[in-house]
Amino acid sequence: MANRARDILYDAYELGQNTYATFRKVPSIASVANMWVDLSMSTGNPRPNFYVGDELTFTVPTDWYKKGIWHGGNVSPKKKFLHKICFWGGGAAVAPAPYLLCDYLGYVPLIDMDNTDAQAVDNTRATLPRYTSGVGVQAFLVATQPYVGGQNFQITYTNSDNVSGRVSLLSVTNTSTYIGQIVNSGITATGGRNFMMPFIQLQAGDKGIKSIQSIQFYGANGGLAALVLCRPIVNLMTRDPAAWVEMDFLKNKPSMPRIYDGAYLNLLVLASATVASIPTIGEITTVWTD
Amino acid sequence: MAGFSSVDDFVSSVTTSGQFWRQDFVKLVATGTVVAGNAYDLWLGNGTIQQYLHGNLVKNYDFTSSPTDWSGVTGAWSYTPGTHLITRTASASDLAIYQTIRMVAGCYYYCRYTIARSAGGVTFSLGGTNDTQRTAAGTYSAIILCGSTDKTVKFTADSSYAGTIDLVSVQPIAGNFLPYTDTSCEGSMWHGGDVSPQTKHLVNFGACVNAASVPNILYLVDVLGVYPRITMTQTANYIMPVGANSVRGAVLEDCQDDWNEQTVANTAHALVVKATEGVTGASVNASCVKLSVSNDTFTTGIIGSEVVGPTTNMTYYYQYAQYVYMWVRSTINLDAGDLTFCTDESANLASSQDVALPALTANTWTRVRLDVSGVAIADRDVVVSIGIKVAVDKNQAFSVYVDDVEWAMPDYVLRNGTFTANADGWTLGANWAYNSNNITRTANASITTAGQTLLPVVQKCPYLVTYTLSARSAGGVTISLGGTSGTQRVANGTYSEIITCGTTNYTLEFTPDATFDGTIDDVICEALMPRSDVGAANYGANNKFYYVMDNQISNGAQTANVDIRYTNSSGSEGTHNRSLGGTVINMASDVIAHLPHSGVGAGKYGPFLPLAAGDTGVQSVDQMAFSGAAATAESAVNVVVCKVIASIPITTAQVFAERDLMNQLPSLPRVRDGACLQLLHLSGAVTVQGTAFVGFCDFAWS
């Protein structure tokens, strides 16, 4: 085997530069079909994420990475990669279903979705970690309190080229109402502007978000939400409730996704029915090397 | 060496150097219910990647997120996010909103916009040329000659206008090629940017569809460019012209039959075999037309004419043409203006419009380029007769041979490249001056340029620039495009060279050295197919093309046969006017985003049009004709040229289909710098509007 791959595997498994960890998420709250769910808020291992913090303040919890899917401690100056992931969806709602493993970078909590003013975000207490330019950083709005839905909203942000005042495309909140549901996801019968992807659509030409300036609803939507900035790491797919998904990112879908020190890893899932009481169980292996 | 030398090189590039980009996408089906066996252009649907209207020079044409790219949206004008409209309330101030776009004064554009209003009127203008003031709600369109006042598309309201603006498009007409890159138009999937001298490859590709609309095949394509707004409303044998340059024009008269519309006293006309006549050369045609002045009794006037017409040679778009090309040979030396090329909407050139030919050297075939843009549109929209006149009495018998009369549109890049009557559009530095339908420079130590700025060129794309240098007495001159220089010329001649437009600016200019003293004329800048190895022996290899309905206008009940001619990828020049590899039948009552040539019936091909047997690629699309006219006014198509990067069959709803293009299907398709990535879909099942294709692409480079 050629040197680099050999070096990675040698460092990982001969020198012990690897971490193996399991996860098990079992949502206790329902969801609606064809709308993404933030499994970080679900019960299980790792424990639920409640997006705590001061309202409208960009928040990066201290040592947040310890509360996500465990991938090992800081390894800098070495580099850490996702080597393998194996997981299983324990019901038809999540198998078959697409999942997204994301590095959650920070969030803006306690957004009042009834407030139709432009709600400015306080960015003075934290800055975007790890992907500091914002390239590839996406945003989603997740409900932290029940809501009604059906309202338009937009965010303004600074893009990865450091241009401020960028405006997202119009998003329409879905009518799921459930906590943990990604509010901007879902589709209408005619397509409209709701999308199957969990992320808020950026202004044409933009490649990522560096910071959020404000969020504005154009009608009273009800509920509270958190606006989350994340970097998608890898797409995953369950195919059958009886089938274990195994992915080796050196061999199967070569990409060796980079996991940065401090990354808070968790999952989003596009369920085909309610996820309540349906487990997602799995394990990840990360490796690090020079 | 670019590219991955091994799997380990790939692993190293990704893990050590971070040379990897992952891009998610979601595209919604734009049209009404998708029918099985048909192909659709997903570019026209909502989603991430952005929706884009082919060939539209206006950015943010549907105001999807904000009034970005538009100026003047303040005061009486405001943006309404809930409806993504620009709204105006009546006011004596804040009359206009506008967007600056790069377009060419003196060229025609198809302009379309939608307004709603409760009071007053609003006027659309292009470069300062006004459309009709609109005082009723509706969707309006017009072909407008771009003015020279400015480079804006503008809406000017009267003080009482209260209403909205939406869906604004400005497109070049008649299929002038518009190249695409990842940054030149909205709607391209980001793949990580330019990496040259390294090479980028697609590593993984995955997608699923949300509804039970399976199976489907999703194609990831690099869209190289578009020939926009090719009308479907003309009758049989309508021909679309492309190619302002002399390489490709639309045939007006092939001169393979006698010009026998009339016989004028003391003249003669005949069809002659070149070899027999001793006038071989010019085109590949075996014959040519011979027009003779029989004796010196003849003074001036018509020496030959030929019947042409809308159902045979002429085209709807000749009224917008800029150039006529023809091979001409005279038995005597002729001065400029001795002969004229004539067209007429009456028979027998009874009241013709004439354009002077240049000087001709005796017994020498010369392919002349004539600027016919000075002939009024009203005099050439239904031409029925063409011919040659002697304008200056030569007092002797002589003959003129004519072969392959072609015509071509403007290049849609330069204004007044022939310096006709002035140097309008050009910025002439010190020591440059307008002369006589050309520009000259006198030698001077102070080096200044002659050029045009803010041209509608696409950076990183190749252009064929042509110009004539004459009356040079010293020094040299160099043409540049976008900051990239061509070859310095130090001798008289007509030069053509391929320049990849640089990224410094949008300027074409001539830069002399200090001693240069000479004349420049006949400047053309024509877009070539990007990312296709232009100039190489495999230029255009693996390029494919399709066409799609334009601008959400249907085509009515039209099931015409489609005749498309193209230049293949045979050698660096290709073979022109190749016919498709099968009879292609258009689909009637078509819907937006559908490829009308696709389907399951006879004469249906999809997603790509069939090439002629043995052809493996496309360098350009040359002509297009529908055998019957569309029933819907202003219906048109866009012909799109692309390369297929990868395809993926989606067999089960809600289940990702994934392909590993390194280990599973070893191919690592190349994604070139500037690639404009988009998606096509070949449907295997009924798919409702709004159905979403969700997926991702992984790219890596080394």
Strand content of chain A: 35-45%
Low-pLDDT sequence parts of chain A:
none
Helix content of chain B: under 10%
Largest sheet of chain B: 6 strands, antiparallel
User: Helix segment count of chain A?
Assistant: 1
Q: Which oligomeric state applies? A: heterodimer
Report on the architecture of this protein:
The complex is a heterodimer of chains A (290) and B (702). Chain A has 290 residues and is mainly beta. Chain A has one helix at residues 3-13, and strands at 18-26, 35-38, 43-45, 79-89, 97-112, 118-120, 138-143, 152-159, 166-167, 171-172, 209-217, 224-238, 245-248, 258-259, 264-271, 280-289. In chain A, strands 1, 3, 4, 13, 14 and 16 form a 6-stranded antiparallel beta sheet that branches. A 5-stranded antiparallel beta sheet of chain A has the order 2-15-5-12-7, with no helix packed on it. In chain A, strands 6, 8, 9, 10 and 11 form a 5-stranded antiparallel beta sheet that branches. The two termini of chain A are 18 Å apart. In chain B, 2% of the residues lie in helices and 41% in strands. Chain B has 2 helices and 45 strands. In chain B, strands 1, 3, 14, 42, 43 and 45 form a 6-stranded antiparallel beta sheet that branches. In chain B, strands 2, 13, 15, 36, 41 and 44 form a 6-stranded antiparallel beta sheet that branches. In chain B, strands 16, 17, 18, 20, 23 and 25 form a 6-stranded antiparallel beta sheet that branches. In chain B, a hairpin with a 4-residue loop joins strand 4 and strand 5 (85-88). Chain B is globular and about 85 Å long. Mean pLDDT of chain B is 89; it is low at 241-247. The chains are: A mainly beta (290), B mainly beta (702). The interface between A and B is large, with 58 and 59 residues.
